[in-house]
Amino acid sequence: xxxxxxxxxxxxxxxxxxxxxxxxxxxxxxxxxxxxxxxxxxxxxxxxxxxxxxxxxxxxxxxxxxxxxxxxxxxxxxxxxxxxxxxxxxxxxxxxxxxxxxxxxxxxxxxxxxxxxxxxxxxxxxxxxxxxxxxxxxxxxxxxxxxxxxxxxxxxxxxxxxxxxxxxxxxxxxxxxxxxxxxxxxxxxxxxxxxxxxxxxxxxxxxxxxxxxxxxxxxxxxxxxxxxxxxxxxxxxxxxxxxxxxxxxxxxxxxxxxxxxxxxxxxxxxxxxxxxxxxxxxxxxxxxxxxxxxxxxxxxxxxxxxxxxxxxxxxxxxxxxxxxxxxxxxxxxxxxxxxxxxxxxxxxxxxxxxxxxxxxxxxxxxxxxxxxxxxxxxxxxxxxxxxxxxxxxxxxxxxx
Length: 400
Fold this sequence. Notes:
- It is a single chain.
- The chain has helices at residues 28-37, 53-59, 79-88, 103-112, 125-165, 218-236, 241-255, 348-361, 366-381, and strands at 2-5, 19-24, 45-50, 66-70, 72-73, 76-77, 93-98, 116-119, 176-183, 194-200, 206-213, 263-270, 276-282, 288-291, 294-297, 317-321, 326-331, 389-396.
- The model is unreliable at 1-14 (pLDDT under 50).
- By secondary structure, the protein is α+β, with helices and mostly antiparallel strands.
- The radius of gyration is 32 Å and the shape is elongated.
- The protein is built from 9 helices and 18 strands.
- A hairpin with a 5-residue loop joins strand 10 and strand 11.
- The strands form 4 sheets. Strands 1-3-2-4-7-8 form a 6-stranded mixed β-sheet. A 5-stranded antiparallel β-sheet has the order 9-18-17-14-15, with helices on one face.
- 37% of the residues are buried.
- The chain has 2 domains: 2-146, Response regulator (Rossmann fold, 3-Layer(aba) Sandwich); 167-396, Phosphatase 2c, domain 1 (4-Layer Sandwich).
- The longest helix has 41 residues, at 125-165.
């Protein structure tokens, strides 16, 4: 049976819509007493009565705000009944109804997870109303605390995994600045399928890589980490250019779980004198070069296919020349695939170039420049960018 009460002296917390109470009581007299006491509890209180634990577990699925449960039921007794109710309605406040001769059971019930207990013979309308209200507030407080603890645990786990899996650049040249931003696109993801790395070798060359595994998820993140580690190992072993890309292509073919998986990649080797770089692209967006004259994107060609698409593929190199002061920025397409305004137009490379010219012309350099580009892309998108994104910038000269 269900009753709705519209007015009362000691009002219960209803939130959005009526306050839903579930009364689990097999004694008709006690059930009637509770209903009468709740006549003064409004506004908009809905009370549903069930007489067995089985019916209570079924009714708990409707999402009551508070459950008042007698621990002496035809099909259950004591704390075992309470535990089943708590498991069936983890978000509801639970109050236990006891008799004078088993008040100690009420104390044990609170220890088991109930918000409070009531001795039937001592209950009046005001006490019942306050007990329900306080129980709901305590349950909300408990839930908030649980979420806070969970968020802190996730944050610590994120930091631990990022320290272990995201790269620490191998860079010894004090004349070079290193700036990076990495963010997975999925909610609460630890890592995405994008990856980047920086390694300076014994001859003074500085090697950069940025890549994007197709798809989103833990498997893609794991594959991205394996490809990055393979790239670093090959660089340290002296491999570069076509030979390195062929080996990475082979690694991808053996490590991927589906023939549909591919990876775009951009790889650069900055010369020891810092006056130029050689760039290889495998289906990846072109880097941007910043200098005194402004911002210049690398030409679209040459660009070979993404890794994992064509057996025996070739990847031609392009050479870049630098001034005394410069910055080289690599990025994944998560930065440019957001919307540009309210329509369906994407930011794409022309939009990114315009943002970069504004930020660079406004005097931003290094990490401030990287952060400004991401922030402005998100502002235009009217939300955080949905795709994984990685940005890697190396600077030389003033403002590095």
